Amino acid sequence: MSKEWPLWEIFIRGQHGLSHRHVGSLHAPDAEMAIKNARDVYTRRNEGQSIWAVEAKHISASSPSDKGPLYEPSESKVYRHPTFFDIPEDVGAM
Amino acid sequence: MYAQMVKSTGEGLKSREDMSPEEAAFQDKIDADIKIEPKDWMPEGYRKTLIRQIGQHAHSEIVGQLPEGNWITRAPTLERKAILLAKVQDEAGHGLYLYCAAETLGVSRDDLTEQLLDGRMKYSSIFNYPTLNWADMGAVGWLVDGAAIMNQVPLQRTSFGPYSRAMIRICKEESFHQRQGYDIMMKMAQGSEAQKRMAQDALNRLWFPSLMMFGPSDADSVHSVQSMAWKIKMDSNDELRQRFVDQTVPQAEYLGLTVPDESLKWNDEKGGYDFSEPDWDEFFDVIKGNGPCNVDRLAARNKAWDDGAWVREGLLAHAEKRAARKTAAE
Ligand SMILES: [Fe+2]
Ligand SMILES: [Fe+2]
To answer: Could A4 and B41 be called an inter-chain contact, meaning their C-beta atoms sit closer than 8 Å?
Structure first.
């Protein structure tokens, strides 16, 4: 059995100026081919204006068991949301 | 369906008391409709059943290109040819979305491919039937993609995140498939006598194989209960089949074609049609490898894989050489 092409994660920026978004992965021998393949696999209906391909082994991910320590600190900080503050209606739009 | 008769590895449904704390927490997440992601803890049976199901689904998309690919060079007009080409290319994309969902569970793409090529993994029985004339392109889009949609729409809500996301993408593309098929059927059914005969003939041959796509009755399936508890199967085979018949019969009537089932009758009480079961002996025979095209389909996939080896190897060698040159220059 010959060696498998490496796995690439594909990110695409759509039409409306939003950030690149992960759309899936694919196999390709190198970055150039990864982008060409991504064009065929993920933008057959005008879904994209720009493609990023990142070899999957270069992505570091948080682990599910870290969920508590990572996100808990933000849970208690309700004052980070505008709805925390009562502003009188008389003040107008804010 | 595209994944018919997926054997779950679980030994039937576990009661709450028999679950480990991890298993109970896992089931709680599923019951609360929280998606399971690749790195989350999951029971081994869930992982294995999903690899089988998603793999089988992916293989079906890939092998499913063959009966339609057969007609690309013989489409009646340039426009029809371009449409069919786009449709078949979509199916390749569907296969790829699904393979990458399966890979997140720790199986390699090549491993899945090899299991298809040596017959260890299955694909949908429907693709072992031949496509004999142009009307079959209409009937396949209308009936086969129609049945696929019936199954795939609920799977968008499946518990495994990558599978659910792949299904959402696929469903967005499927309705084009069914419509282009029905469009061909309308043309044929409103055409000359000979064209009408071809359309009817296509319906006659593909009706029961399409009903088989949903798999045998769940009453006989020990695997369905566990899969439904895990939300990797959302509806019973019989429910989906009924829904498909109810939706499709009026569409056949609109075309002025006759569904090849003498027992087909509207049942007011249940609010659906009564219809004949497909020949399940034939189904099991096709699954076993004895359908009209099983040998051809696997031979075609094996040939494509073998003939493509030099491309896969050559491109990899090129990439390695370039990478080495770049490192040397730095
Ligand atoms: Fe598909
Ligand atoms: Fe399709």
So the answer is: no
